[in-house]
Fold each of these.
Amino acid sequence: MSKQLTEMLKGTLEGIVLALLSGRPAYGYEITAQLRDRGFEDIAEGTVYALLVRIEQKGLVDVEKVPSEKGPPRKVFTLNDRGEQELAEFWTTWSLLAGRIEELNPKNREN
């Protein structure tokens, strides 16, 4: 992964994970697998788990411990109302930012 992409992901990964959780509850490994399936292969599991701790501390998700067949219980994360609000704000901000960046792209300017 390029350094530029890594830096951009730092600012958007929380929103990306919230978007994944808006589809359905998931535990850490599932979230990492979904990210990889969507082309974010180089994101380390540790990065995802640290982010999950932060969004839990911010009160954006509800957490339920579910028994696992292979080891300790899994923490399943569900987006709550506060998380839905945060995600809506993320999409609004993303749309604004993406639009302004596209305006700067010389390929999109009229001569």
Note: The domain at 3-108 is CATH 1.10.10.10 (Arc Repressor Mutant, subunit A).
Amino acid sequence: MNVNTISNDRPENPAYYDSLINETEAAKFLGYTVRALQNWRVRGGGPDFVKVSSRSIRYRRRDLISWAESLLVANTSQFAGS
């Protein structure tokens, strides 16, 4: 995961964090592939998402940041694998 993408260039406007972005933008924001997001949606363990319709998925940046922060560990022995 590219943590620098998440921590840098955060606008002060709260709407930035709550606006909906598509899976391509979400994948780029996190530094993962669209396929990884798709797999997490099916298998679980990924960030929360908004299912607008059966073929339209969106993410909030706030949820992407929250998900990434929930995975933070101080050392490898803390990783339990989710």
Note: Residues 47 and 66 are 8 Å apart (CA to CA).
Amino acid sequence: EQPQVLWFDIAVNYILPFAYTVAVWMLWSASPGKILLGLKIVDADTGDNIDLKQSIIRYVGYFPAMMVLFIGIFWVAFDKRKQGWHDKMANTVVIRTNE
């Protein structure tokens, strides 16, 4: 491939989704879908909004969680705190809001 096409491909498919997701989690503590469902991502220990480090770890944690038949995502159904592997890695939990 040509270098300028490769750079554009990397930016659109990897860098922008990463930056968008982390930014949205930092601003609203939820993705647009979670907001519509009345859910929020918080620190598992304190209940405060997540920080940049947790956002990055949570995003990266989706990859191993999905690698083998999405077992890490479906883990939510069997975990007592309803945490997926990505939540456990980042020490986060998704809660319902009363808004």
Note: The chain has one domain: 3-96.
